[in-house]
Amino acid sequence: EAGVAQSPRYKIIEKRQSVAFWCNPISGHATLYWYQQILGQGPKLLIQFQNNGVVDDSQLPKDRFSAERLKGVDSTLKIQPAKLEDSAVYLCASSLLGGRARNEQFFGPGTRLTVL
Amino acid sequence: AQTVTQSQPEMSVQEAETVTLSCTYDTSENNYYLFWYKQPPSRQMILVIRQEAYKQQNATENRFSVNFQKAAKSFSLKISDSQLGDTAMYFCAFMRGGATNKLIFGTGTLLAVQP
Description:
The complex is a heterodimer of chains A (116) and B (115). With 116 residues, chain A is mainly β. Helices cover 0% and strands 47% of the residues of chain A. In chain A, the strands form two sheets. In chain A, strands 2, 4, 5, 6, 9, 10 and 11 form a seven-stranded mixed β-sheet that branches. The mean pLDDT of chain A is 92. Chain B is mainly beta and 115 residues long. Chain B has no helices and twelve strands. Chain B has strands at 3-5, 10-14, 19-21, 24-26, 32-39, 46-52, 60-61, 64-69, 74-79, 88-96, 103-105, 109-114. In chain B, strands 2, 5, 6, 10, 11 and 12 form a six-stranded mixed β-sheet that branches. The mean pLDDT of chain B is 94. At the A-B interface, strand 4 and strand 5 of A face strand 6, strand 10 and strand 11 of B.
């Protein structure tokens, strides 16, 4: 079974530029998450989708971050404009919709963003 | 709000020895789940072990086991017969029961297994 795919793996941009990350979850996983992991910290949830609807985006800085999951499968996370403090690893995860298995999240390899 | 605290930024253990990583959490919820995730260097995060709060029995997965003390809000991870491949960052995480599956992570413990 293929895991969660993310691209690009690395991205370097200058502040005030825009950037987009892509995630393809495990086939059949209805729930998709984007986490931000700043160096030295644990991951922090930015947004959670269930199919193509948003379940939780309370910690998403909506003035500069946006995310979509148009067909309920893959997702993109965008930052516009980027700030220095956005330098982090952006992790995508997915899980099944129901039952005990919904509590297990499978993570992708992440995209390491450096903002100069 | 729930919080997760890992007070050991770094730990070291000799190969084949046993090591315990500490985690405490704060919540007023009664229905929740606790997890330990492993993040090897430059590799993706994987689930090590899970504990449901309503279960009194401590979870075990091969060489990994937990000591879940609900009243003390403590959730430590014991790794027996440590192997070089156990070298990684270990994160303790909390999930409230209910509609959302939001994971709240601690700051992690970097474990180095020495040959």
